[in-house]
Amino acid sequence: MKIPKCRSGMPVVESTNHESHGMGHVPLETHLVYVNFYTYEDAKQVRMILNEYTAFDDILQKANELLPTCRWRIFSGTDKHVSSEFKNSRQVWDAIKQTSYYEIRYLEVRMIKIGGSARCDGCYREIFGSRYKCTECSDFDLCGVCELGPIHSFHKLIKI
Ligand SMILES: [Zn+2]
Ligand SMILES: [Zn+2]
């Protein structure tokens, strides 16, 4: 496995400021984790060495490496269901810690596209404000008004 490069395309700054992130002398807890990446139609398993400080960035970077055709957000879940969005390494680490099976750790990551059409699939108007994305259809969004109605109540929508 190669060493992760600078994250998320940000400019590389000479790194004398690690201490300011509070991880200077704290020993890293790391785990070998079998990470299952799911999209609506596909699944891939990747073995990753993760630590509690950079797990979120490492997984997000891997998701965007696996399917670089678009940008992704990462959620807890599988191809069948999606729950909460991962937003930091603490949440990812907590999820990993819950899944110990004979010392093997797993993480289920559901990838959901960023962007795509920002047009409502209910009223066909451009969406301003809250947008509700279907967790099962590959590209289905509703505006806040249509989300209240029965248009797509057979699938779970998440606010993005
Ligand atoms: Zn609408
Ligand atoms: Zn749907």
UniProtKB/TrEMBL annotation:
* GO MF entry, a single one: zinc ion binding
State the InterPro entries in the record: Autophagy_Rcpt_SigReg, Znf_ZZ, Znf_ZZ_sf
Q: Which gene encodes it?
A: Cnig_chr_V.g21310
Tell me which PROSITE patterns the record gives. Answer: ZF_ZZ_1
Pfam families from the UniProt entry: ZZ (PF00569)
Q: Which CDD domains match?
A: ZZ_NBR1_like
The ZZ-type domain, residue ranges: 120-146
**Lineage, top ranks:** Eukaryota, Metazoa, Ecdysozoa, Nematoda, Chromadorea
Protein's name in the database? ZZ-type domain-containing protein
Q: Which UniProt keywords apply?
A: Metal-binding, Zinc, Zinc-finger
Please indicate if the UniProt record lists Cell wall biogenesis/degradation as a keyword.
Answer: no
**Domain of life of the organism in this record?**
Eukaryota
